[in-house]
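Journal club side-thread
Mid-discussion, someone asked how the predicted structure for our own chain would compare to the paper's figures. Pasting it here so we can look after the session.
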Amino acid sequence: MGKDEAAVNYVVHEPILTASSTYFQGALKPTFQEGADGKIVLEQEDPRIFGLINEYLYTGHIRQVHSSEVIDGKEVKVMTPTSEDYAEIWLLADYLDMQTIKNKAMLHLAYAVDDGTHLYSPATMKLLEDLYDKAPMESLMRKYIVDLCIWSRQDHVDFTDDPPLQLMKSVVRELKKKSAKMMDSPLNDVNNYYEKDPPRKDDTKKSETPKAAGTPTPQ
């Protein structure tokens, strides 16, 4: 993961990767070199951000180790990831097709930027504009950012000096459809912006097979 001196090797159990990502599910097939070698190289991705994703895969939590300093043989300093970290986690999880982690990052990012104070920061608006620019065209992240911009304008939160043109067009188009003053904060319905897992081929096949009478449904 990463390039040259910044490269980091992560050892992750294959079933954990393939269960959480259709990207890895496909790449690790034995018919591909990566699957045969049990190794995938992602030179363009940030090792630190994948480290946060890797921790989530094993713990169900996203956190960032700020310092490896050990105090009295016990304490390890940690700090909560920033809004920028959650944005990068969302983008990398989107690339790797990890829907559950995308939604987790979406929730954390929503709370980080929509807590009544951070949204008024030009740095936060710049973050949202950059994320909108990088997110896929039809992604729910783009919809969330548009709705957040509309909602925030009732409190006179404005764009930066150079926002993405498509974001401005989307905001104007949606403003014609609804009144910003009648909107609740998008945070109140953040689950509406969660990406859904696409059905897997194996799951589709299973659903087409009739179950024997009395067979319990898996929990």
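Post-session note: Confidence is low (pLDDT under 50) at residues 203-219.
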